[in-house]
Amino acid sequence: MSDLKPYPLFSNAIRTHDLTALDELLVKFPEILAFRVPGFGTWLHYAAAHGNLEIVKFLVQQGFDINAPDDHFGIAPLEAACSKGNVEIARYLIDQGAVMDVSESVRNPLWSAVVGRSPEIAQMLLDAGIDTSPRYKLTDAVDEDLDAVAFAVLRGESEIAHLVALWNSGGNEAQAQAAIAEGLRIAEAITE
């Protein structure tokens, strides 16, 4: 093990959920904490995407910022967890005060929950007070911007579309169905 570089050892310990190995590697290679993981950002991003709550908690205890942006799109660990459907990690990060950044579609945890195909995370985000009003332009070919309902419809996530539409309508099923129909119209315009 001593002749190998720490990066693959560290990533393997996270992927295999080996907290003991991770702890030993941190003692041996403390500089690895500052390493930026290609395609992920920090090790916390990587761990949030790879689905082990104990590893995520350990990294937070080591001082990793739960709101640190990645190197490409400014995505935080919460979005990494949501996009992979990692419910317990998303819950933990929200409970720890993770910011629910909706400034861009790629940073929006609710949109990440749609990508991760997780109605449970979507409901958790709604319960935590995520702003569902942002609309984003995904293509210049269509004049209208998508909201979370339209995005969920576009991605084939009807359960999430219904959850968000019902939330936005204050529980009014008729209004929720109208929002879903509007989302379908916009999604169809994008795919034409």
Structure description:
There is one protein chain. By secondary structure, the protein is an all-alpha fold. 55% of the residues lie in helices and 0% in strands. The chain contains eleven helices and no strands. α6 runs parallel beside α8, α8 packs parallel to α10 and α9 packs antiparallel against α10. The longest helix has 19 residues, at 173-191.
Could you outline the blueprint of secondary structure elements for this entry?
Layout (H helix, E strand, L loop, with lengths): L5 H10 L3 H10 L14 H8 L2 H9 L15 H7 L3 H9 L13 H7 L3 H9 L20 H7 L3 H11 L4 H19 L1
Task: List the uncertain runs.
Answer: none
Spatial separation of the terminal alpha carbons: 54 Å
Q: Overall 3D geometry?
A: elongated
Please estimate the helix content.
55-70%
Number of strands: 0
Give the overall average pLDDT: 92
The helix tally amounts to 11
- H-E string: HHHHHHHHHHH
In short:
The chain is mainly alpha-helical and 192 residues long.
